[in-house]
Write a structure and sequence with these properties.
With about 170 residues, this protein is α+β, with helices and mostly antiparallel strands. Helices cover about 25% and strands about 25% of the residues.
């Protein structure tokens, strides 16, 4: 259980936020075609998961924009946004903002991924939504980078994310 805040309100999450080296196991999320997909079966190699409560917020839009820029610098990494929004809302937002290279996944149908990984807000007015976090996982769903925002309005750890992507890109080039 983690303690996070938003606008001065203390919130708590279910589960335990994964640390580097933890294997996430098998999880199902819903893509923008309303198909259930297993996390380990999508993308390939490195996967960046930018997780937030809803796409309809300025911080989520900022994160998606930063992720879009990173996808150009690190084309071998698959970039995903994950929220509790309906898949059609994620798809409409993604396409209307021109982020075709970022894939969107929803936790609205199956909460196992967010609840077992310390990402489900379990108290306060945001109960039932995802917290804000960034995860980088490899093809075996092993966590390479994990950053949980202590406040829902915090920026993503862009420097840490760029560092881990650059490190793994240089390893792949060798």
């Amino acid at each position: 259980m983690a303690r996070v805040t938003c606008a001065g309100e203390t919130l708590y999450t279910d589960g335990s936020f994964p640390g580097v080296g933890r294997v996430l196991g098998s999880h199902t999320l819903t893509d923008t075609n309303w198909d259930d997909v297993k996390l380990e079966a999508i993308g390939g190699g490195l996967k960046v998961l930018e997780i937030f409560p809803s796409i309809d917020s300025p911080k989520a839009a900022q994160s998606a924009s930063q992720l879009s820029e990173l996808s150009l610098a690190f084309p071998s990494a698959s970039m995903f946004i994950v929220s509790s929004d309906l898949p059609c809302a994620l798809q409409n937002w993604r396409l209307s903002h021109g982020f075709q290279q970022i894939l969107a996944l929803s936790a609205f149908r199956s909460h196992k991924f967010v609840s077992t990984n310390g990402l489900m807000i379990s108290s306060g007015r945001f109960k039932g939504l995802c917290s804000r976090a960034t995860l980088v996982i490899d093809g075996a769903n092993s966590v390479l980078h994990a950053s949980l925002a202590l406040d829902l309005m915090d920026d993503m750890d862009l420097n840490g994310l760029q560092g881990v992507l650059a490190h793994h890109a240089s390893k792949a080039a060798v």
